[in-house]
Every structure is written in C-alpha cells, then in structure tokens.
Amino acid sequence: MTQYHGGTNFGRFASSYVTTSYYDGAPLDEYGLIWRPTWGHLRELHAAVNLSSEPLLFGTYSNFSLGQEQEAHIFETELKCVAFLVNFDKHQSPTVVFRNIPFQLAPKSISILSECRTVVFETAKVNAQYGSRTAKVVESLNDIHTWKAFKEPIPEDISKAVYTGNQLFEHLSMTKDETDYLWYIVSYEYRPSDDGQLVLLNAESRAHVLHAFVNTEYVGCVHGSHDGPGNIILNTNISLKEGQNTISLLSVMVGSPDSGAHMERRSFGIRKVSIQQGQQPLHLLNNELWGYQVGLYGEGKRIYTQEESSSVEWTEINSLTYHPLTWYKTTFAAPVGNDAVALNLTSMGKGEVWVNGESIGRYWVSFKAPSGQPSQSLYHIPQHFLKPTDNLLVLVEEIGGNPLEITVNTVSITTVCGSVNELSSPALHTQGKDPEVRLRCQRGKHISAIEFA
Q1: What is the number of structural domains in the chain?
Q2: Where in this chain does the record put each Glycoside hydrolase 35 catalytic domain (predicted)?
Q3: Which of 8, 65, 171, 438 is the most exposed place for a label (fewest CB within 10 A)?
Q4: What is the rounded CA–CA span in Å between residue 350 and residue 401?
C-alpha cells in the first residue's frame, strides 16, 4: 500500500517526536509538488495493473518456483494472462525460463508480464522522468530593527498558581492536551553550611523535555528521544540564596504517543524531585506544596495573533538573542508567484511558530539526526495563510536561537531529466511502441533551457 500524498502536521498535531513534515517522499510531496521519479514510476505501475485488470480480478491464481530465490505468480482466464516474476536475491541478476521464454531478473525486483510473455513493467528499472526540488531564499529576515522580543515570565509565586497540591500531578491530566507546557513550582528554604558544599538538583520526568529555573534563572535542560528510555533525568548543580528559593520546572510534551498497548494507562510529567547539599541526606520534594501553571503566559495571551500581539510589551532583541524561553516577532512580505513557501529555521533551537496567528507546527532543529543535520529545517507555510504584505511571524523559542538568520524561501522543481535506452520498455500511458523521453514542467512553469541531450 502506498500513501500518495505527503503533508504537514500543522499546530500540535504531530505525535511523539514526529517532525512537522510527514512522508515528504510521497508521489505528491508535502508542498503538493510531483515528486519524481516516484510519481511517474507509480503511474507506470498503475497502467500495467490496469492493462491486466481482467485476469487479476477474474482469473485463476497459481504460483511456482523458478529457482532458489525466484518465483512466478500467475493470474489467468481462458483469454487473458498476467504473470509476476519475483527475484528475492539482493545481489544476483539470474536468467529464468518462463513458458519457454528466457527473462533476466534484476536483483530484488518484480517484473510484470502482460499476456504472460511481454515485460511491461520492472520495479528495478526506472524510466520515468525525475527532477530536483530546490528551496530559493527570497527574503532574509536579518534586519535587527524589524524584530521584537518578549521574555516569557517565569512563574515563582505559588500563591498565584491556578492549582496547588502536596504532590506531583500528572502532565496530561492537568493540561487536557490543550498545550505542550506545564509549570511545576515549589519553594525550598536553603540554609548554607560552613563548608560551602555544592547543591545538586535532581528531577526525574516522563515528559519529553524538562527545563529548570531557580529564582527565575535558567539552570538546565534535558530531553528524551523516540527510541530512548521513558524517563528523562536532570542532574545539575545550582546556586541558592539563603532563605526561600523558588524552583520552577517546565515540563514539555512533544506530541502524544500514537501506538502501543494500554495507552490509557500511560502517565507523563515529573515523577520525582530532590535536592542534595553536599553529603547531607537527600531532601525529597515530592510531598511539598507545589503550584501549577498550565501553558505559557504568551500562549494564554495569544500574543502570536495580530489582535493580541500588543497586549504585552515587546523590546529590542539585542539582549535577548539566544536566551531560552523567549518570544520573537517580525513581519515579512509574501513571495511573488504561486510557488510553495517555507521558512528556514536552521538557526533556531526548539519551539513553535505562527504566521498570521496560524500555527505552522513545532520545530526542533537543535535535535540532530545521526547525520549531524536537523531532521527538518524547512517549515511549510500554506499560501492561504499569507497576505501580500505585513505577514506577522511569531516564534516561541525554548532553548535559544538566532532569529536574524531565518529566511523565507520558495520551493519548486528547478530541473527535470529522463533517460531511456533500446532495452527500456515503452511507457504504457503513452501507448507508443518505442521507448522515449518526455519531459514536462509543473503547472505554471516552462522549460527555459536544455542543459544536456
């Protein structure tokens, strides 16, 4: 079964640790562009199957071995016949004899034989047109004077918390999955010892990301991964003042789980918090009085919308660039034309981005793939989200990034090519007798030059 169209997980719809973009290699990609040669190769397969629809639907099925790792699967009526010759060998190209006709099978391939004698499709031979998709920078948002910043307030007053309790509450039961964020706030009285011992904060969580603040100062972050252990543990040395100190922990989900047994029994959020002064006994804070704030302040105020953006005081970004938990905003003009539009967020860390009040999804470019590159750096903006000018761009950055390096890009197919030889099968959809190359542009484009023939 083939998924025919890729897409975008706008807003918070992506599941745990899943990128905003999904199945971009589908015959129609995330931007609605034809992804070649997948689309053309699949079109040829559809034509081959349609050509033999009668024996496939009404014929008698049989199969037999053609060799150690080769098989024939036949569907046959009194008048029509189609055969599938399968080679499971990953390395060899054996020649098999089927109904007194020799056929050479490519490694790990399937050949479809119309009337059980003529090859009309081979999975291993791609004759379809292929092309390259490129992202072109049309605007660099590098003018510092067009950017504004707002530092997310760190909650530190338990008396102002919406919920309180002498226990650690489960994350999703508090947020109702209406936000990724849940603040856990607790007070700790520090009495320094004479030997100046280090103070260690330990927090164990089943959320996906955990940020820690002490007296509103950022002290550390830890995150999990899709295939990692369920628990994440933050261990960090902290500085405390004598007397009362506030520890604010931000529990962050990156989507909800989408598979597995007993999902209704899964729990998330902080499970254990402790402080240790030097060699003194561990001080467990689980049963202290905890305050809870659901969501970020900026989320609640909807400062990512044009209507509510002015409800907070934005400042110049000089002193806040790279600071964790900071909101950024600017405006940009929509690119001219109908090409797909995307933001390049390679310079950022982790957060969420809105265009004209519409969330185009979470981003997490600081989380690198095994190749050392982000799993995703381009984030799709649908054309209907855009206005000709003054499009409001708002980001909330959790870890720290440089918004001055964000670019607006257009995405399109810029090069197309194809090749055939005398051994290639004619394209079924053209109904021609000889193999040929036909090159076509996406709608609205034209061929401007022939680079090689």
Answers
A1: 3
A2: 4-48
A3: 65
A4: 8
